[in-house]
Each structure stands twice: as structure tokens, then as C-alpha cells.
UniProtKB/TrEMBL annotation:
Presence of the UniProt keyword Transport in the record: yes
GO cellular component terms attached to this protein's record: plasma membrane
Segments traversing the membrane: 7-24, 48-67, 79-101, 121-145, 157-179, 218-240, 252-274, 294-321, 401-418, 449-475, 512-538, 550-570, 576-594, 638-661, 681-706
Organism: Microvirga mediterraneensis
Protein name: Iron ABC transporter permease
UniProt lineage: Bacteria, Pseudomonadati, Pseudomonadota, Alphaproteobacteria, Hyphomicrobiales
Length: 729
């Protein structure tokens, strides 16, 4: 038996016999001596919690291969131990709650109310994890995934995490779509809500009336998906294939909107283009263009979402563009193809994985976004805002919110299927183990011109939007009183000196420290799980793989408001009782933002030849070593994309956490929303400006820590000059 398997068996016994079985109480960390043994499942079981004692059986089963080692029987004993152990923990966890039995059959058999128990704690989590890994090691012993325990364990852990933190909470709230107000099964109510004319109506085609909210959402999502992909590609081409002097500044402008807190872009657009906006005033005074409310509706939401989601497309595409082998382009030109023909027939087709994943992310983000439509939507209704008001508005119709969420999921599933159909089974490998000293070819003139005409005006527009944000932070009242002041910053971030040291008296410090702490914890976890999932999806083949891949998109496709409510419903009662802790915020961010790491990882890994992995394995390296020494260095663009996105989203997300924050963990975005609701726009913009600066520093640190990917290719400056070539005899 391997040391890893034996180690997990020992950890299973530690979780059962030593660690506290119930509750994630912080006292269990600070006062370990008081909680060890006395709060373990073994002691609870001996004191009367008899339902915990059967877990001893699978723990003993796991020891049989240790006592009687046999290569043939080892896998069977490990599988039996893992399956039985997980089944017992899940069964006892969901059968007994705070108020006794939770299943009618048990109430009828044993009487009411029955035993009670709190939510699972450190001991239960460790023991359940141990059973899961033991099961995966047993499957590896039977030859699953070529007998690689690391791969089987990785697949098992990722699937388990997705089930617990994605499927379980999401299905908890979606189940209400098929229930009436009393919780009874009512499929006819689902059909009536699903076929509502306000959702699917096409009156806008035949009259001046509005179309259904589903068509509005789909049309906006398609526009944003295409727009963000085109802008992201233009920025990526300029950043990697041109000698543009201000390339780094242009790259900064492309990423800047992703680090902007919610509602700020919408507020900036209103301050620019609203009836009293700065640009509207200039157009009226100089050119006589009448003031209007055109920014409210589809145009305003479209512009705001382009600003917000273009950085995601850029982060996905830049690694893909960098990974294209110049040798393939040179081979095309050797065959006398023109530069435009080479770009159209060689370069662009090799970008397909990046283009498909960038479009999918932009489309899904548009569907799930509710902040921008809430501020700028006007009469243009989308599903996310309808869901928001169904959950928190006067309607309080959870079933309607669930039905609308199912429609959003259907749109996401359709886009996911179309993406796979477009990519097909073609091979997009461009990074191999062979030497590749080719020089990246300059862009064809038409492509370069189109990229400049697309990216530079958009960057200038971005600068204008952020100039408004910066100005708003340093004046008393934007649009009314432009007197310079630092009052907003002092109110939020005042630091006073006291007898015992410095005192952070500003009103925003608590939320700021809590936000940075949660973001710093969630970002590396998000990147690790997302990139590991991408590796498994591209390098392994297992049953249910397509469903597994779609499952990674599930929480990303549902509006954050629904995700927040689903976490409250799922994790406010046993067996997993984590509401009110910082842990629930971290897990929410991890699985809400993980799809970006998955999609960028898949796009990058699609270009990396599998022979590199196979060569490492042939030389005797384990899968974990191959992942660390071979794959990860080639995944640096995807690592940067995942870390940057997950960190800044944790700093700026509002919809998913607005129901999860507490007095101790009051996030920055909820503070900003509170200031916006109170009309304190200057304070909200000042706080947002500080967050933007912090995130810029964090992005620079991430980029320096991860570093650039080295593909062994020459730069254009390293190429020999024509004179030198001619001088060679």
C-alpha cells in the first residue's frame, strides 16, 4: 500500500476520533486542547449519539489492506470503505437536523421529534475527505485513469466540491420552480410561469410594444459576446503582434474596467451621457444637440457591459495569441501565401479555442449581470433584474425567480453546446516539445488597421470614463459643486493617532480589511481548482465528462442574487451550517469565479501538445510532477487570467454576497451600494478609487510572481539583419 493511501486512512481516524465533529467554531482553532477528543465523533457516539458509531465500520475496512496486503483485493476493500463511509456520513447528516428527524419515514418509524445534531465540523469534513480519497485510490488500483491515483483523486475532489458548493445549493432553489407557495409539487404552475407572455412575447416585431424579457436577454447577450470578443481580440493582437509604442498603456486600459466596483461604470456613464451629463452639456452648448435619455435602455447597458466584460475576453485571448506557432505562419508564406491569406487560413483558425471561450464567457456574464441593467436598464428589462425583484422585491416569488433562472440556464447550455459544435474535434496544438525559433509575423495591414481603429478609440473612451470617476472622488458633488476636497477620502479612510498607536477611525476600514482578506484567500483557491479542472477536461477521458464540464459553468450562469439566496437556503441548516462565516464567502467566490480559470485553462491547454505530458510520464515522472514541472510553466497566461479575475471579482462582486455578509464580514461592495442608496456618490466613488489602486497593485504583483511564459522563440529584435545574412558565404 502506498504511503499516500495509508496517510489518508490515518487522517480519517484522526477526524473521527480526535477532531470536533460538529461546528466550524473558531474556538475549536484557538482552544484545541478543550476541543480535541471531547468533541470527537467517537466520544459523542459513546455518550449517546449512536448514529455516529457506524462510521467505525468503513474505517476498519480501510485497515484490512494494511493488515493483509494483497494487490488483487486492495482496490475492493478501499472502494468498499470509501463508498460505505461517504454513504453513512451523508445519510446521517441529512436524516437528523436541529429539530430531530428530517424524513417522514423516520418520524413514522421511530417517533417524533427524534435526536438532534448541529452542522458538520472539522472532524466530519476531514473524515469525509479521507473516505473520498480512499475511494479514488481504490478506483486507481483497479486501473481507472491508467491507475494514476493523483488523477483519480483530482477528479473525485473536484466533482465532490462542485456537487457540494454548486449543484446542492443551486438545485435547492431551482426545486422551488416546481412547487407552489406551500411547498407542494405543482408542475402546472411551472408551465404557467414558464410560458408567461412577459417572458416570450414578440410584440416588438409587429408593434411598438416591448418584446419578452427572455428575447431581450438573449439579444443583449449575443451583442455583448460578439462585442467583447472582437475588442478583446483587437487588444490581444496589438499587445502581442505589433510594435505599438504605448502597448503597455493600452494593455492597462483593456484590463482597467474589470477592477471597477459595481455601479461605478453605470454612474460614470450617467455623469457623461445623462441629461445633466458633462458630454451632453457640451453637445447642447456647442452643437445644439438636445439632451436626451438615450443612455437608459439597451444602448447604455450594452456599453456598460462591453466596458465591464472586455477584459475577460482579453485575458483569455492574449495567451492563445501568444501560443500560436510562428513556424506554421512561416510555412504558409514559404508556400507564397499572402499575409492576409496566412492570417485568415492559418492564424485565425488556430485562435478558435480562445475565440469560442471568450464569446462564451462574455455571453454568460451578460446573462448573469444585474448591476448594469439595474442602473441603466430603463424600460429594457432582462432576466437578471426580473429575478432580483422576484427574490427581494414586493413579489417575494421564489418560484418565479427559479423559473427565470432555469431559462437562463437553458440559454447557457445552448451556448455551451454551440461552442463545442463549432470547435468540433479538430486539433489546435501549436506548442510542442520541438524547437520553434520562428519570429511572430507582423499583422497584415488590414488586420492591424482594424485592430487599431477598434482598440484605440475604445481605450480613449475608457480613459474618459475613468477621468469622470477620478474627478468625482475629489469634488464635493459631481454635477453640482466642483470644489476640490479630500473630505470623501477622510470620511472613509481616516487614520488617527492615539496613545496606544494608530487608530483606523474611517468608516470604510472594516469592510476594506475584510474584503482584502476574503479576496486573498479565494483567489489562489479559485485558480488552483479552475486550472486543475481544465487539465482534467483536456488531458483525461472519463464518463460524464461533458456534464462535468457544464457543471463548472452552472453557478457562473445564474445571477449572483440567486446564488446568494441558494447558499442561504442550503447552508443555513445542517448538515453544512456555515452561514455567517467568512468560509461561506470564500466558497461562494471560488465557485462563482472558477469558470474563468477553467475556460482560459482549456483555451491554453488546447494549444499544448499532449506529447509533452507523455514524455514526462515515460521518463518516470508522476502526474503531479508533470503537472508542476511541465504543464504549469506553459499555463502562465491562464494562471494570471484566473488569479487576476478571481481576486478582483472577490473585491468588486455584490450580487452574490449581498445576502451573505455579516457585521464582521461586511464587504466593500455592500458598503459602496449603501452609500449609493444614501445619495453619497462622492464617498462611493472615493472608496472605489482606492479599491482600483489596490487592485492595480495586486495585478502587478500577480504578474511579477507568475512571470511570463517562455516558449523558446526569438523576438523580432533577435532576428539577423538582411546585411548579415548576405555576408555569410
Amino acid at each position: 500500500m502506498s504511503r499516500a493511501t495509508l496517510g489518508w486512512i490515518v487522517l480519517g481516524w484522526v477526524g473521527f476520533a480526535l477532531l470536533p465533529w460538529y461546528g466550524f467554531d473558531r474556538n475549536a482553532v484557538h482552544n484545541l486542547a478543550d476541543y480535541f477528543v471531547s468533541g470527537s465523533a467517537l466520544i459523542h457516539g459513546l455518550k449517546g449519539a449512536w448514529w455516529l458509531l457506524p462510521v467505525l465500520a468503513p474505517l476498519c475496512l480501510a485497515l484490512i489492506p494494511v493488515i493483509r496486503p494483497s494487490a488483487e483485493a486492495k482496490g475492493n476493500w478501499l472502494i468498499a470503505s470509501g463508498v460505505l463511509g461517504l454513504a453513512l456520513i451523508v445519510l446521517q447528516g441529512f436524516s437528523i437536523g436541529l429539530n430531530g428527524w428530517t424524513v417522514d419515514i423516520l418520524r413514522n418509524l421511530f417517533g417524533e421529534p427524534g435526536p438532534s445534531q448541529a452542522g458538520m465540523g472539522y472532524g466530519a469534513a476531514l473524515t469525509a475527505t479521507a473516505f473520498l480519497i480512499i475511494l479514488c485510490h481504490g478506483l486507481a488500483a483497479h486501473g481507472w485513469c491508467r491507475g494514476d491515483a493523483f488523477v483519480t483523486s483530482s477528479i473525485g475532489v473536484v466533482i465532490a466540491l462542485i456537487i457540494v458548493f454548486v449543484f446542492f445549493p443551486v438545485t435547492t432553489i431551482l426545486a422551488s420552480a416546481f412547487a407552489d407557495n406551500d411547498g407542494n409539487f405543482a408542475p402546472y404552475e411551472f408551465v404557467a410561469k414558464f410560458l408567461d407572455r412577459s417572458i416570450w412575447g414578440l410584440d416588438c416585431v409587429t408593434s411598438d410594444l416591448r418584446c419578452g424579457v427572455a428575447w431581450n436577454t438573449l439579444f443583449l447577450g449575443l451583442l455583448v459576446g460578439v462585442g467583447t470578443t472582437a475588442l478583446g481580440l483587437a487588444f490581444a493582437l496589438i499587445a502581442t503582434r505589433t510594435d505599438f509604442r504605448f502597448k503597455k498603456l493600452l494593455r492597462l486600459m483593456s484590463v482597467l474596467p474589470i477592477i471597477t466596483p459595481p455601479f461605478v461604470i453605470g454612474l460614470a456613464l450617467i455623469l457623461l451621457f445623462g441629461r445633466s451629463g458633462a458630454l451632453s452639456a457640451v453637445l447642447w452648448e456647442w452643437f445644439g444637440v438636445p439632451r436626451s435619455r438615450w443612455i437608459y435602455g439597451l444602448p447604455g447597458v450594452f456599453i456598460a457591459q462591453l466596458l465591464a466584460f472586455t477584459p475577460i475576453a482579453f485575458l483569455v485571448l492574449i495567451g492563445v495569441v501568444q501560443g500560436i506557432s510562428p513556424t506554421l505562419e512561416e510555412a504558409s508564406q514559404t508556400l507564397r501565401a499572402k499575409s492576409w491569406t496566412t492570417f485568415w487560413t492559418v492564424t485565425l483558425p488556430l485562435m478558435r479555442p480562445g475565440l469560442a471561450n471568450a464569446f462564451l464567457l462574455g455571453f454568460v456574464e451578460s446573462l448573469a449581470d444585474f448591476g448594469n441593467p439595474l442602473v441603466l436598464g430603463g424600460n429594457y428589462e432582462v432576466l437578471s433584474t426580473k429575478i432580483f425583484f422576484a427574490v427581494v422585491g414586493a413579489q417575494q416569488d421564489q418560484g418565479r425567480a427559479a423559473v427565470l433562472s432555469i431559462i437562463l440556464l437553458a440559454f447557457t447550455l445552448g451556448a455551451f453546446w454551440l461552442q463545442h459544435a463549432w470547435l468540433g474535434k479538430k486539433v489546435y496544438t501549436t506548442v510542442t516539445g520541438k524547437g520553434d525559433a520562428g519570429i511572430p509575423l507582423p499583422l497584415p495591414r488590414r488586420v492591424a488597421l482594424a485592430s487599431y481603429l477598434t482598440a484605440i478609440p475604445w481605450a480613449v473612451f475608457t480613459v474618459a470614463v475613468y477621468a469622470i470617476i477620478v474627478v468625482g472622488a475629489f469634488v464635493r458633488s459631481m454635477g453640482r459643486d466642483y470644489t476640490p476636497t479630500f473630505e470623501h477620502f477622510l470620511t472613509a479612510f481616516r487614520v488617527e493617532r492615539a496613545d496606544w498607536g494608530f487608530y483606523f477611525s474611517g468608516s470604510a476600514w472594516n469592510s476594506f480589511f475584510a474584503t482584502v482578506k476574503v479576496a486573498a484567500l479565494s483567489a489562489p483557491l479559485t485558480a488552483a481548482i479552475g486550472l486543475l479542472t481544465a487539465y482534467l477536461l483536456t488531458r483525461q477521458r472519463f464518463s460524464g465528462q461533458r456534464a462535468f464540464e457544464f457543471g463548472t459553468l452552472l453557478s457562473f450562469a445564474i445571477p449572483g442574487t440567486v446564488v446568494g439566496v441558494s447558499y442561504i437556503l442550503a447552508f443555513n441548516v445542517p448538515p453544512i451550517e456555515i452561514t455567517g462565516t467568512g468560509f461561506i464567502l470564500v466558497m461562494c467566490f471560488v465557485f462563482r469565479n472558477m469558470p474563468v480559470g477553467v475556460r482560459s485553462g482549456i483555451a491554453t491547454l488546447s494549444q499544448i501538445d499532449k506529447s509533452l505530458d507523455e514524455a514526462s510520464l515515460t521518463l518516470g515522472a508522476r502526474s503531479s510532477t508533470t503537472m508542476r514541472r511541465v504543464v504549469l510553466p506553459l499555463l502562465r497566461p491562464a494562471i494570471v487570467a484566473s488569479l487576476v479575475y478571481s481576486f478582483v471579482r472577490a473585491m468588486t462582486a455584490v450580487s452574490a454576497v449581498i445576502f451573505l455578509v455579516t457585521a464582521e464580514y461586511n464587504m466593500a461592495t455592500t458598503y459602496i451600494v449603501g452609500r449609493v442608496e444614501a445619495g453619497e456618490f462622492g464617498l462611493a466613488i472615493a472608496y472605489s478609487t482606492v479599491l482600483i489602486l489596490v487592485m492595480l497593485v495586486a495585478i502587478a504583483v500577480i504578474q511579477l510572481a507568475v512571470g511570463e511564459r517562455r516558449l523558446g522563440r526569438r523576438s523580432a529584435s533577435a532576428a539577423p539583419s538582411p546585411v548579415a545574412v548576405q555576408a555569410v558565404p
